[in-house]
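Input record (one chain):
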Amino acid sequence: MPPNAKRITGIQDYQMYFSTWKEFIKTLKHKEMNFSPDEFVVSDNWAFQIGTYTTEFTLPNDSVLKDEGNYLWIFKKQAGQWKWARVISNATP
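The corresponding structure, as predicted from the sequence alone:
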């Protein structure tokens, strides 16, 4: 559930959304992303992590794009591996 966008469902939507991000990331001169978890809970085959994030990107024209906000990651254990089941984030003013 990206901020200010439609909810992404299914592998095709996921691949399309992140292919755009991958191309954007390739153009950056500098990229820094930090995640600070506040809470992490595991229960059977489900887990969630709640926290805050900060990003700082230097664009090709040397301008700097900063963002900070909150996130919620929900994981599901499948075939012995933890996989993202849901990702939610929102920027804070």
